[in-house]
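Backbones bend. To wit:
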Amino acid sequence: MTAVAAKLQYQYALVRLVPLVDRGEGVNVALVLFCRQADFLGIRTHLDEALVERFAPGCDLAVVRERLALLERVAAGDAGAGPIAQLPQHERYHWLVAPSSTILQPAAAHTGVTDEPQGTLDRLFASLVLR
C-alpha cells in the first residue's frame, strides 16, 4: 500500500488594483496564500502596466509598484517593512487580506487543500493573476 500525502489546508486571497475606486473596476495584481500547517505565507505580484494605463490613464504606477513591494516585504517578515512585518505569520496574512479602501483591495478569501503550498501559490497566481 502506498502512503497518501497529507493534505494541508490553506487560505488565499487575490489583491486587486482599483485605481478608480468610484468606478469599481480593477485588475488582479497579487495573490496571497497562507498555510498554517506548513508554516507558509507567500505572495506573488504582477503589475500589467499596459493594461492599467489603458483603463486608468494617469494612475501613478510607481506608487503601485512601491505598495506591491511593501506587501511582499510584509509577507516575508522583513524587519525593515515596519511593525506589521514583525507580527506572526497568521496575523500578517490577516493584515494583508483585510478589507481596504485604498486602490489595492483584497478580494474575499478562499480555502483549499494542498500537499505543496508553494506550488499551489504558483498555480493559482498563474491562472488568476497572469492569465
Remarks:
- The chain has a mean pLDDT of 93.
- The longest strand covers residues 8-20.
- Residues 9-130 form one domain.
